[in-house]
Amino acid sequence: MTDKIKRRSDGSIDTGFYTQRGRRMRAEAARSIAGAVSPRPRKAHAPGVVWIVLGVLVLGITAPFVA
């Protein structure tokens, strides 16, 4: 919080400032919560692994990958 209340030039409390500040803080909290519960993107396998598996399963290639 601020030490001194923010006021407009006419002396009234600057409600727009505090409204905007509250919305920003709420949005940051929502993003933080959403980031904590959303699943992380999975790492893709290297293309080489896909081709090795394809070669072993489909084409029957065994050397040098499978003993």
From TrEMBL:
Residue ranges of the TM segments: 48-66
UniProt keyword terms in alphabetical order: Membrane, Transmembrane, Transmembrane helix
Name of the featured protein: Uncharacterized protein
